[in-house]
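User: quick one
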Amino acid sequence: MAMPRLPDQEFETQDIMINMGPQHPSTHGVFRMVLTVDGEVVRDVVPYVGYMHRGAEKLCETMDYRQGIGYMDRTEYLANFNAELSYVMAVEQLMDIQVPERAQWIRMILCELNRISSHFMFTGAFGTDVGVFGTAFTYSFIQREIVQDLFEEITGDRLMYAYFRPGGLAWEVTDNFVERVREVLTQVKQGLKDVDGLMTANEIFIARTRGVGTISTEDAIDYGMSGPALRASGVDLDIRKTEPYLYYDQVDFDVPVGEHGDVYDRFLLRVEEIRQSIRIVEQCLERLRPGPILPERMPRMLRTPPGEVYIRTEAPRGEYGIYLVSKGGNRPYRLKIRSAGLSNLQALKEMTVGQYVADAVVILGSIDIVLCEVDR
Amino acid sequence: MTTDETQPARATGRGGAQPASPPPPPSFDDTIWPVVDRALAGVTATPERGSLDLIVHVPRDEVVAALRALKRHADLGFDYLRSLTAVDNEDEGIDVVYHLYSTAKRLNLTVKATLPNNDLRIETATGVWRAANWLERETAEMFGVTFAGHPDPRTLLLPEDMTDTFPLRKDHPLAEIEVLQGEGMGYTAEGQ
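Assistant: Done. Structure below.
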């Protein structure tokens, strides 16, 4: 039987523009992108950000150094402690404050626990993006809530902690802090096994993510990407290792680095980072000793001498930087927040063009953006 | 937003004074300044000691040439743009600040260029790092700086039609806060 012959000339196709967002469950906040598609293939992406812009930098210029801490929580609401840390470290650097040892260890514990809860948020939301609706989300969110409960016990607030202060901490942690952290770690380890077992070796999950949204090492560096999104492309760059702050040079941990620079690697890296963060917290607990949590002589009103500093720390999404310019007085003259999400999002076009339209959501999810941090 | 027509001249300002450069003492030898100085041959750069990183002041006409030289130099290799922003120094003009990092050599450097208030124009760095694209768009809309040759000069965070006011400039009032906090917070009811 003769096969029907296809016409010699190619089919004429027409590019269609699809508007996605800003109100869309898969955009992780208020984000809009205009996709130009040719059939199933994405030809162009134009991202629009700024829907959540509240002028945090301008507002910080009108507030003294203690009031500004709360605004850091509101920019990076999934990794509040990491955001607060950059800010208070900038003030400490300008004022030349020595932070007591105990405060530093507690900061480290809280920052790493925050990394764990943030990465669980990622595995849950990412599962939904890929299509494992519900299951991955609930399993991850149980773990996130367990960590969140601990934070609420310590700081009194579920999300907006404002617990770090220039010089140390706002108040002493609860008496059963060490036991509670160990309890949380035990539960998180079990939860990580669940999420790992559900997703990592899942054939459908791998089929949706392996080889999707690839970005090369050179492009990732050129776009200024950071965090797990950069390391997935094979760049061994973690600020905790390259420019250690707190006591990261005194603990033992590995920085996982990807090979393929695709969506699956970005997922694997975050799962591995949860494991490494658990390791770090366990070592911190061993080193935690009683002691003061603030320096003995702290001024009632924080005043910085004129100067400027750019502090960078490794937040769960990448480099969270604070550029603080002081001209004396109790307020920043200029405060710039370097957002990891903004730089990572710039590379979205590079990753998405040429991929299927169904993968656009998966790629966006793999960057793990927080729109409040992007827009500030 | 910042096309050639919409370039506004700022009312304040006595023109752009160069930042007070300290007399270059030999104390810069413990920093990366000697290497940076060699890399920036032909550029009039002046060093300044920052709180963490070395700061280099570069004239604004030579800034992109300087950035390109810093990226290409074998011993420096500043291939990563950490941050790009501006600081409004009121009468002394606007500083455009670049925070560079070298992924191979693990070095940090801050580059600064001062723009006079009557001509807020600088060449774009998007040809050096693609990371500069959105950061320059943000700096342009917030400070009214024109990045000449920028491939995509639209607003980034602000609404498309908000091209006549620049929120992060010091002369831009923070209206709501004035009423709520009043005196003592630096902004008075008269609208300082």
